[in-house]
Amino acid sequence: MTNAENPVDRERLSAIVKAYDVRGIVGDALTEQSVEALAAAFVDEVGAAGGKVVVGHDMRDSSPVFAEAFARGATSRGADVVAIGLCSTDESYYASGILNAPAAMFTASHNPAAYNGIKFSRAGAQGISLDTGLAAIRDRAGDYLEQGVTPVAAPGTVQPLDVLADYAAYLRSLVDLTGIRPLKIVVDAGNGMGGLTVPAVLGTAAGLPELPLEIVPLYFELDGTFPNHEANPLEPANLVDLQKAVVEHGADLGLAFDGDADRCFVVDERGGAVTPSAVAAIVAVREIARVAALGESDVNVIHNLITSRFVPETIEAAGANPVRTRVGHSLIKDRMKETGAVFGGEHSAHYYFRDFWGADNGMLAAMHVLAEFGAQQAPLSELADRFTPYALSGEINSVVDDVPSAYTRVVEAFTGRGDFDELDGLTVFGTTAEDEPFWWFNVRPSNTEPLLRLNVEGADAATMTVVRDEVLALIRS
């Protein structure tokens, strides 16, 4: 991973620094050398010399080595590293929040085994994007690659810290599951970090009292080669094993976590996927009611522009203010802080909580669903149907040779047929008569690939299908 024969240069480093994190193929531009440089640059950017930096990692084969390389770079610039070891991404956010220290988490999330990466946080689990410091880290790391890292006179230290038990206890303090009816749950950890955190939070592995939950584990063995399926539940093919197991075990529901366990997807008792928008609406109602009972008024809840129309409708009906944003976890963390929002939900199953330093936590969202579902007797499919009145296409990616031309074809075809919004890509809200079913769609170019991403919603399945097929034909023609 040092790649001494082909050292990383500034250009290759820039290729792995994405909009919100660092992500690349291990041994290419992502090497111990580049990680040390990024670590030194991170310490400089966040002013961590003389203070603490949290470093955690997932179960990928390269992650422990990279975490050690990061510690070398960080301590050389004067930071004291708090090494929390194997953890989920939201566990690293917990450590960043509770210690009020910047953090680096080594994971490539749902990407295949050949990849790894770094998710950075400022102190208090605040996000970092290209616009808010990541570009500066990239540029300074480029300098260090060319000139070498200059060690400070008083280098930092490395101290291990196990935060899993405290993390689990903290989540339990936010959502009380002790009084729900007994539930049987199949959990697919995808050989990712959910295999560590689920037994701690929902079970007794961290020494917490037993909950009225029977957990049927699926792929809990930590294995960064992902021998069973990719740890990306957003892809329907990766939910098949969970859906089958829920039905076979007669379970009440299923949960699927991605590789670093910061996202959670829900499956009902029939094996049907519950949309992230439905989960966002369910959690939003609970969080709004909770703070309203404490006397809070003028409550804000964030949703990105691709969630179902039902999400802002639900937020308004619950007496709160929906705040519409662009897609992107660092951006939404910033908006959580700016607006004081109690909760935020994305179509990609990232869920953000004010009580979790504005950071995303899939486990916490899952606990809210369990609490809501376990407080009543109806099957989950019935609860989910109430929060899914409209038809969503899900995100459809198309490889396009000429993205601008495809984008232009869509604009020309729908000019005069709807209202245009360019907050994030192009959103078209259909101009319809009062007795006609509504529709909207969003087309966004990928920042890193020759892709166009399409999301469509209609008042019913027939309307959504017609719009989806027309836009896809324009994109792919």
UniProtKB/TrEMBL annotation:
Family annotation (InterPro entries): A-D-PHexomutase_a/b/a-I, A-D-PHexomutase_a/b/a-I/II/III, A-D-PHexomutase_a/b/a-II, A-D-PHexomutase_a/b/a-III, A-D-PHexomutase_C, A-D-PHexomutase_C_sf, Alpha-D-phosphohexomutase_SF
CC cofactor: Mg(2+)
SUPFAM superfamilies per the UniProt record, alphabetical: Phosphoglucomutase, C-terminal domain, Phosphoglucomutase, first 3 domains
Listed Pfam families: PGM_PMM_I (PF02878), PGM_PMM_II (PF02879), PGM_PMM_III (PF02880), PGM_PMM_IV (PF00408)
Taxonomy, superkingdom: Bacteria
Domain called Alpha-D-phosphohexomutase alpha/beta/alpha: residue spans: 17-132, 166-271, 281-389
Keywords: Isomerase, Magnesium, Metal-binding, Phosphoprotein
Domain Alpha-D-phosphohexomutase C-terminal: 395-472
Transmembrane segments: none
PANTHER family, per database record: PHOSPHOMANNOMUTASE
Family under the similarity heading: Belongs to the phosphohexose mutase family.
Designated name of the protein: Phosphomannomutase/phosphoglucomutase
Organism: Agromyces allii
Lineage: Bacteria, Bacillati, Actinomycetota, Actinomycetes, Micrococcales
